[in-house]
Amino acid sequence: MALTKINNNTLSAITGLPAGVGGKVLQVSNMSIVSTEQTLATDTYTDLTGLSINITPSSTSNKIFLYTNVNCFFNATLGFGIRFLRDSTNVFTTTTRYAEYPNVNSHRTMSSFAYLDSPSTTSQITYKVQASSFASSSIEFNNSAQSIFYLMEIAG
Fold first, then answer.
1. Residue 6 covered by a domain
2. Backbone angles phi, psi at 66, to 5 degrees
């Protein structure tokens, strides 16, 4: 439907309007919800079981918003790290020990992490969540609640 404007009591078509701005959510991936318990006791980043999703961007200028909320329990005070992979490329890593609680013997947490990625492709991508334990202390993921992971394609 053409837009019109009033011009001396006549209507004339307006042409050459700019395209809309980016930022619109184009697609939301199927959310990955995981309740299978997994224990890590290594400072090497390891895939969190089930927190992996495929998405195919519709334009190379679009961005992918990644969001995860992980449930974990640990007895050490040294915390853990989270990272996101795009296929095999690291796109985000926590820069500090997350959930570090001095003088606490055990802790349960639901921790959220988000990142806006610019993959510059229209090919299918696999994103996954990995975790590591600082100082190789034992951390249990999905011990009493579920972890989630989802993706949104955002117009660029």
1. no
2. -105, 135
Burial group, residue 91, by CB count within 10 angstroms (0-12, 13-18, 19+): middle
- The CATH number covering residue 29 comes to 2.60.120.1340
Tokens of 24: 């619109």
Cα–Cα nearest to 38, from 83, 63, 75, 70: 70
77 Rama class: left (phi>0) / alpha (psi -120 to 50) / beta: alpha
Q: Which of 142, 136, 130, 145 is nearest to 75 (CA)?
A: 136
pLDDT one-digit tens code per residue, 22-51: 789 999 997 888 888 999 888 899 999 999
Can you tell me the distance from the alpha carbon of 108 to that of 110, in angstroms, rounded to the nearest whole number?
Answer: 7
In a domain, residue 67? The reply is yes
How many structural domains is the chain composed of? Answer: 1
Q: Which pTM value belongs to this model?
A: 0.80
First to last CA, the chain: 25
